[in-house]
From TrEMBL:
Domain Ppx/GppA phosphatase C-terminal, first and last residues per copy: 328-488
Lineage: Eukaryota, Viridiplantae, Streptophyta, Embryophyta, Bryophyta
Keyword Hydrolase belongs to the record: yes
Name under which the protein is recorded: Exopolyphosphatase
PANTHER family: EXOPOLYPHOSPHATASE, RETROGRADE REGULATION PROTEIN 2
Length: 558
């Protein structure tokens, strides 16, 4: 059990995780408290007595929470502490009064740890990624690829710092003036131009831009609320929209927050947390100027940042051969499945997932003829759909943790309402949840609102994946892994599923009659979706050799 605390200029964050011996971790608890450590001092050059007392109170609470979880706690401090003239006194008092040691990170260290945290939340390991993290005292920039930072720096562009310098932070009754905004923009442009950030980013072309931490998350939330309130927006671009936004959408947010002249007016903006109303103008303008300077057209939002990076760094120090897991989608699926499944159910679910992939891959190839034997639905499915099918099949049992009765409904709820599936878009999570919901009992219909509101092409894919998944789950009906493989043979009007039994300890083929019976009950729905007459046969290696070498004489209808 590990706890990581990020002592930010604006707020303190703590995450508690459970890690296994391989270093894979899952989130157990989170806590966040606004401290405003950098407030009350010009240019964040001093931690005031009031801010110090707020920090002590929060750290004591965090320490107590970590102790309750039996978690080893590591605390890092960023801009407000590293720039404070009295930082040594502050760090010493934390040790004497709260009994905790504080690591003061350099700006570059902070940026690199943020990158490591982001890699645990978004599948961008193989891409050249630009990470932007706007904090209260500074903004961190990282260019990274394959887990290695190519360029990392920190600039004194924080929303608290600039709000105090240019926008009268702390004087809430004061109305925002156009001249203040213009002066703020000039200052940001000068800092960016003199920093070397623009040249370094332009010299290494990035494939994806990612933002992290509170300011950027708040901007995304405001954009999301705007989309929800627009009746003409389709569901897949609102409730199921990805956590990302465009330069145009960012510009609309900046206009909206600047139009609200007072903090009280900004508090009423949908999606904006009230506690950020006094600093969102500064934060959003910083981000807009970064978009303009670096030519960013679209930005993804990462739920992970510095504190998760600290966890990764701690695990690397703890385990000698530790390598962070960067296939975060699969890792998060396995973690969620393990959280709710017994060992036997876990093995069975993974076995069914492998059979589902074999069936789907078989439906996308033709051993007995030309391309015309493939159905239109098979051709519609892509590699990413195969991954969603695998994830849903691995997770289809999780609802049994609640109750065996209607466990497919419970699985749907647990998948849809959790924070553990990382790297998946809201639409992808919806698809995984629906597949788990319909792997047994009823099939998806337009009477189900969740299914009906999916885009039409996605509905076709879900039906096809559902038909495959129902057969794959049935083929491990007794949770015994009795079927080793499934081979698919297609003709323009028919499909044969040749199942190969596993061999038992005595060398005999396993009895798979119950599995085959269960799978045959799912064939009518399969036929309806794929428009092919399906059948199932039990085959040994000799049968497969004959079918593969003499397809002309072999008839699926025989």
């Amino acid at each position: 059990m590990l706890a990581a605390v990020d002592m930010g200029t604006n707020s303190f964050h703590m995450v508690v995780v459970r890690a296994d011996k391989q270093g894979h971790f899952e989130l157990v608890d989170t806590s966040k408290e606004d401290v405003r450590l950098g407030s009350g001092s010009p240019d964040i050059s001093l931690i005031t007595p009031d801010a110090e007392e707020r920090a002590l109170a929060v750290i004591k609470r965090f320490k107590q929470l970590a102790k309750m979880r039996n978690a080893e706690m590591r605390i890092v401090a960023t801009s407000a502490v590293r720039e404070a003239r009295n930082r040594r006194t502050f760090v010493r008092r934390m040790l004497e009064v709260a009994g905790v040691e504080i690591e003061v990170l350099s700006g570059q260290e902070e940026a690199c740890l943020i990158y490591q945290g982001v890699l645990q939340a978004l599948p961008v390991y193989d891409k050249t990624a630009l990470i932007v993290d706007i904090g209260g005292g500074s903004t961190e920039f990282v260019l990274g690829k394959a887990g290695k930072p190519l360029y990392a720096t920190s600039l004194k562009l924080g929303h608290i710092r600039l709000s105090e310098q240019f926008l009268g932070l702390g004087r809430s009754k004061e109305e925002l003036k156009k001249e203040q905004i213009e002066e703020l923009r000039r200052h940001i442009r000068v800092i960016l131009a003199d920093s070397g950030v623009i040249e370094n980013v332009q010299s290494t072309q990035f494939e994806v831009a990612i933002g992290s931490s509170g300011t950027i998350e708040s901007i995304e939330q405001m954009i999301h609320h705007t989309a929800l309130s627009t009746e003409s927006q389709a569901l897949d671009s609102t409730t199921l929209r990805d956590r990302e936004f465009t330069a145009e959408e960012l510009g609309m947010v900046v206009k909206k927050v600047c139009k609200a002249k007072t903090v009280e007016q900004r508090m009423k903006i949908p999606g904006l947390p009230e506690k950020r109303a006094d600093v969102i103008v500064g934060g959003s303008i910083i981000l807009e100027e970064i978009f303009l300077a670096l030519g960013i057209e679209k930005m993804k939002v990462s739920p992970y940042a510095l504190r998760e990076g600290v966890i990764v760094d701690t695990l690397a120090e703890t385990f000698a051969n530790y390598r962070p897991g960067f296939n975060i989608r699969r890792i998060s699926v396995i973690n969620l499945a393990r959280k709710f499944n017994t060992d036997q159910r876990m093995v069975s679910a993974q076995h069914s997932a492998r059979l589902a992939k074999e069936i789907l891959e078989g439906l996308q190839t033709c051993k007995l003829g030309g391309r015309d034997c493939l159905s239109d639905v098979s051709l519609l499915l892509q590699d990413e759909d195969k991954e969603l099918l695998e994830a849903a099949t691995i997770l289809h049992y999780v609802g049994m943790f609640i109750n065996h009765k209607s466990y497919h409904r419970h699985s749907h709820y647990l998948i849809k309402n959790n924070e553990h599936l990382l790297g998946y878009s809201p639409l992808e999570i919806e698809i995984i949840a629906l597949l788990a919901r319909y792997h047994r009992k009823k099939v998806p219909t337009l009477k189900d609102e969740d299914f009906a509101t999916l885009p039409e092409e996605v509905q076709k894919k879900v039906r096809a994946m559902c038909a495959v998944m129902r057969i794959a789950v049935a083929l491990d009906r007794c949770d015994t892994n009795a079927i080793e493989h499934v081979h698919v043979y297609q003709q323009p009007e028919s499909v044969m599923l040749a199942v190969v039994p596993a061999v038992d300890s005595s060398g005999a083929l396993r009895d798979v009659s119950l599995e085959v019976w269960a799978a045959r009950t799912e064939l009518p729905y399969f036929e309806k979706i794929f428009k092919r007459k399906p059948s199932i046969m039990v085959a040994d290696e000799n049968d497969l050799e004959f079918m593969n070498t003499d397809p002309v004489s072999f008839s699926l209808s025989s």
